[in-house]
Amino acid sequence: MVEIRKPIFVETAVSAVMEHQLKAVSEVISIHACDNRRLSEPIYATNAIPSFDKSPYDGFAIKSSDTNGASKNCPVTFQVVDHIGAGELPTKKLQVNEATRIMTGAKIPEGADCVVMFEICHEFEQDGQPFIRLKREIPEGDNIMKEGSEIQKGDLLVEKGTLINPGIKALLATFGYHHVSVAKKPLVGIISTGTELLEIEEPLQPGKIRNSNAYMIASQVKRAGAEYRYYGQLADKLESSFGKIKSVLDEVDILITTGGVSVGDYDLMPAIYEKLGAEVLFNKVAMRPGSVTTVASMGSKLLFGLSGNPSACYVGFELFARPIIQTSLYNPNPFLKRTKAIMATSFLKANPFTRFVRGYIHFEKGTMVVHSAGMDKSNVVSSLAHTTCLMVLPGGSRGYKAGSVVDVLLLEDTEGQQSFEAFRKLKKEES
Amino acid sequence: MVEIRKPIFVETAVSAVMEHQLKAVSEVISIHACDNRRLSEPIYATNAIPSFDKSPYDGFAIKSSDTNGASKNCPVTFQVVDHIGAGELPTKKLQVNEATRIMTGAKIPEGADCVVMFEICHEFEQDGQPFIRLKREIPEGDNIMKEGSEIQKGDLLVEKGTLINPGIKALLATFGYHHVSVAKKPLVGIISTGTELLEIEEPLQPGKIRNSNAYMIASQVKRAGAEYRYYGQLADKLESSFGKIKSVLDEVDILITTGGVSVGDYDLMPAIYEKLGAEVLFNKVAMRPGSVTTVASMGSKLLFGLSGNPSACYVGFELFARPIIQTSLYNPNPFLKRTKAIMATSFLKANPFTRFVRGYIHFEKGTMVVHSAGMDKSNVVSSLAHTTCLMVLPGGSRGYKAGSVVDVLLLEDTEGQQSFEAFRKLKKEES
Fold first, then answer.
1. In angstroms, what separates the C-alpha of B86 from chain A's closest C-alpha?
2. Topology of domain B337-410, per CATH?
3. Run of H or E including B190
C-alpha cells in the first residue's frame, strides 16, 4: 500500500535539476534601481581614466626643464599666470618660467609637464604679481596622472553575472551607464497544500496551524534573487488542486509547492505530476531533512515539490531551487558557497543519510566556528530564525564530535561557487 | 594660508559620532514587505507550539494500556473507528481496543495516549471493518508531540533589532503577525560638490569627470539599511551651496556631502558648517584614505562631509555613517563585524596613519584569507568594485608582509558587533 521510493544522492539530485537550465533573460533598468541586481553584460570602459592629464594634488604646474640647475643656493622663480580649479580649463599655455596654480583633479595646462606641491614652493608677490620660488630640480612627469594611466578606453572592467554593489554602481556612473543591462528576475509561483493550514490573519483553530512555509519560501526566493507570487493554499482535493496548479504554471517560470509530496493518504502531488504529464526527476533524496523533496519538469518549467515540514522545506529550497535561479541570473557561481568550519556542537547519533543541520557561523580569530541554530528537530520553526548556514554531516555509521571539521554551506553569501561537490565521503575528525 | 588641522584617532572620531545617537522610530508594515528590515519590537509566541497534542507521523492513535501484555505470541487487536487527516478533527473518543488512523500533524483523539507507526501494524479487514494487530507493548506518550513542547505561549522568540530573514519571517507567520513593527529607515540626503562634476547622462568634457560618488554612496546607504534622496550637485559657490544645504537639512535625518572638505581654494564645506552654526565634531582623522573626513552636528541632524576622492568617500561612509544609521534601526550590534584574516598581499611601505585597504575575503578550508581588491591608489574607482571588506593596517614604522594576520572589517555581513575596538596597536606578524 505504501509506495517504495529509492533515494538518490543529493549531488545526483542537484545535477538532475541543473540539467534543466532556466533561460536567462536580460532587461534594461535605471542605474537608480540597479543595486543587488546581476549584470547581464560585461562593463567596458567608455573612456580612459583619467580622461585627460590631471593633477593629483593642489600645487603649481610648471615645465620641469625650467628647474634645471635649481638648488638651495640657486633658486628659480616662476610667475604665476593662471589659476585652474577642478573642472575648469587652463586658459594659458605656459611660457618659460611661468607657472599655473592648479587644484586637485584639474587639467594640466599646455606647456607644463610636472606639478609641484604647495608645501615645497615659496610664494611671494612682486609689483602686485604672484610668484613662486623653487630650490630644487623637479623631474618631468612628477605629480601628473597621465590620461589612461588607470584605465584604457575599451578595458573590460566587470564580468557579466556580477552582483552590483556600491563599487560597481560607482563604476557604472563613472562610465556614464545611466541605464544598466541586468538579468531579469525569474518569477516563482508559491502554492501551499494542506487542509490543516490557516492563513496568517485567521485565529488559531483546533487541529490547524498557520501557514508559515509560504512566507518563508517567499523570503528565500527574494534572497535567491527572484520574484515571487503567492497563489494561496490548496485543500487536499485532487481535481481543484490540479486545475489551480495547471493554470499557475502558465504564469510562472518555476512553481514551488509545499506539502503533499510524501506517501500519505492526503499527499496529492504525485498524482498531480502524473496528471500534468510532468517528468519527475526524483522524489526521494538520501538526505535529512527533506528526503521526500520532489522535482519535476514540464517543458521549460520546473516544479519543486517541497516538504510541508518547515525545515525540510527550507533545506530543499536552498539545495535545489536556489542554484537554478542563480543560473538564470547569469551567475557563473550559482551554488551555495561551501567552506569548512569547526563544529561547536556534537551530533553523536549516526544517520545513514547526509544531514543538513541549520547553523550559524561565528568567527574566532579568522577561524570559522559553526553552532547549531537551535533544537534540531525538523519541525521546530524557531531553529531557522538564526540560521546563516547549513552544516553538512555526511551519512554513515558514526556521529560527529564538537571540534570536528565539517563542511558548511553559506546562505547569506553572494559569491557562490562554480560547482557542487559530492557529500558522500566521511570527513576526518580534527580536534 | 593653509589651515593646519590636528588629526584624531579613528576610534575617537567614531565615538564622537556615536554620541549623537539618532532617534530610532518604529513603523508597522505588512509581513509581505518585511524582508531585510529590523524588528522594532521583540517577537513573542502568541500561542503554544504545538497548539494541541499532535502526531509527528502517519500511524494509528491508541491507548497504551490496551497493549499491556502484547507480544509476538500474544498480539492485541484494535478496531479502526476513525480516520483523521492533518487539519481535520477527531470525531470519536476512543473506547477500549479502538484505534484512529491519524496523519502527520493531526490532533490526537480523546482516549488515545500514543501513536503507532504504520510500519509496525498489521492491517486487516474483518466483516468489512478495518482492524490492526500489534505484537508489542507501546509506552504511554510514544510519538505524541505534546501541546507546548516546543514553544510556550508568551515565550520570547526573537529580540528587538534583529534583521528579518526567511526563518524569522516564518516565525512571524506562525504566530499570526500579519503586520510587523520594524525600524523606520532614516532618510539620508546626498549632495555632491565640485565644479568638475558632470551628471552621468552628460557626455564627457575636457577637464571634467562624471559624478560617481553620489551613486556609490546611494548604494552604501541602502546597504546600511537607510533610504536616500539625491539632491544633485553644487558648484563651488558659497552662497548658493549654503542655501541649498540649509533647505535640505529640513528634510533629512542625515546629510552626506561629497567633496569640498579639504583645505584647498575651492573647498567650501568648512565655511558652510560655520555659516550654518553646525558643531564640527572633527575634520581630520589619522587614517588613509579619508583623513579630511568631517562630521558636524546641528540639533538632531548629522552632516557627513566625505572626501570627493572615491575611496576616501567609501571608507568614510562605512566607518562613520553606517554605525549611526544602524543604531537608528535598533541594531544592538551597529559596528562593522571585525575579525582576523591572513593577508595574501604585502604592503611593505610603512605609513604613520592607519590604512583601510579595500579587499575581498576568500575562504581556504575554514581560514579567511584577504586579498587586495585592486591597485590600491585612493583614486582608482575600479578597485572598489570587488570590495567585500576593509583590511586594517595600523599605522606605524613598518609595512606588512603577505602571510601576516590583520584585522578585517566585513562590509557584506549583517550581524555586526557591539563595540568598536581601538586600531592603535601594531599586530604581531604570523607566517
1. 5
2. Beta-clip (2.40.340)
3. strand B187-193
